[in-house]
């Protein structure tokens, strides 16, 4: 199963038998609105805090994925989830609602693919028959926690990104119909010394490149193996850096294959600066848009590399640089 | 491998080929001082913040575990770790130092056994040959983040617990000498509606009981199977509740078998109120004291149930109750 240094090849090819993507009002105006199962016009989701609203998004994504598979939550053995809130409260409170055995994970915005990689490992190793993998983020909850409350009206530089309000969930099983998870590459922490939390794409790009290169090396394949290679949330700034770094290292990926979830989710006229970000970005784009494209026959083999900036506001205040990580999952149909 | 609803039986019996426990000055005065590899007299560990001091503890535990096995960090495929800091920065910054592929996890104080369970799963499923599992906490960093800076001198009720300043790490392998991980039970989130962050033992006791019962049920064994059953950090208050709840449900565990890491680590005359707590509590007691007792032949079969209170200061302020979880790992020699 371990292939090369850091890649798992799943011989049983765990199946994503259902998935769901839920978003907020800004995502409803975005480029991928049709790929969401639910889009909320109220950024509060009827709750009295943004954190509780995020929990609602995640609960809805999880419950939708389960019901789309015509299953009950009692049939699912494990719930694996992570998010950006301190102590991953969106995930833990959703785990309380679901009542399933819960494996909490944290990889910042890489959580979406960390949870899918772990879920696939559990299925492949017969540690479970059904595992629900999920991740979420909420724009205003994240701004409040990591930067400033949005009411403050702080300005941002063009390198900043817009955290997606959304949650995505995938139900992974031993057998069934649907796209299959064929391998996963677990990333190392890469820190090039960048310190600007308004330029996460630049900080995360080298981590994405490190994981992509490890994936190709471990599996002895090249970019042409995939129809689409999508990083998580590098945005426009990080995407250019990642493309150039890969080319410099001899892994030039044609622009029609290489993209970024943060560049796909919003329309060009939405004021998102360098693009989308947050756990909910890769999660909703993958579990909604990309899997839909696979089911339509437009894509057969994709590699999703979710990137995460592992800073906290406190590590930033203590003048630490931003450690970054990326986890890659390959999905084939 | 999946046995019953939520337990993994590891047929290959992954081996803990080495482990390490590192503590601070208060642990040096504790009941288990002799079981630590390193005890620091300086609670700052020469750093300029308590968060950086916690990272140093964790780095030292990890590096010690690796060197005790006469290995290099390059030989270890994955590092799995969690802690109580926001965005688990102790673990992520340690992962940056170690340079290994990193799987970040979060289960509050249950992180110690969540990481050991996942590490054992990776070994058993041949997803790795060597995995380092770890967890840490730092008393003053935790007080500052979850309650008040210690300089404030806030008083605490007798139900409160003392967060351990310490880190523990275990190196898990396919083959070798040492105690073996035979099974793990992943817990559900249990929330009985308790809201007092100064009485975590009471909040977590039902989660511990739920996981212990699931473990016995899934494996069709009873408490007499084990020489020692140790919960993580219920402390004296939570331990009584857990004992009574188990007895009420027909699982009476004799007091000479049933204990709690938070009751073991400090001496009776240390002012720790209801006992020790924190990820570092179960981690140091297990990877130091309990494994040492196994190697001495005093214990042959133990079950460690690490408990976690999954609240954040923000969920508390928003009047949420405290969701709790417990993950159990059985170790045999």
TrEMBL record, chains A, B:
Pfam families: SpoVAD. GO terms for molecular function: acyltransferase activity. SUPFAM superfamilies: Thiolase-like. InterPro entries: SpoVAD, SpoVAD_sf, Thiolase-like. Gene3D superfamilies: Stage V sporulation protein AD. It comes from the Bacteria. Signal peptide: none annotated. This is Stage V sporulation protein AD. The lineage of its organism: Bacteria, Bacillati, Bacillota, Clostridia, Eubacteriales. The gene is spoVAD_1.
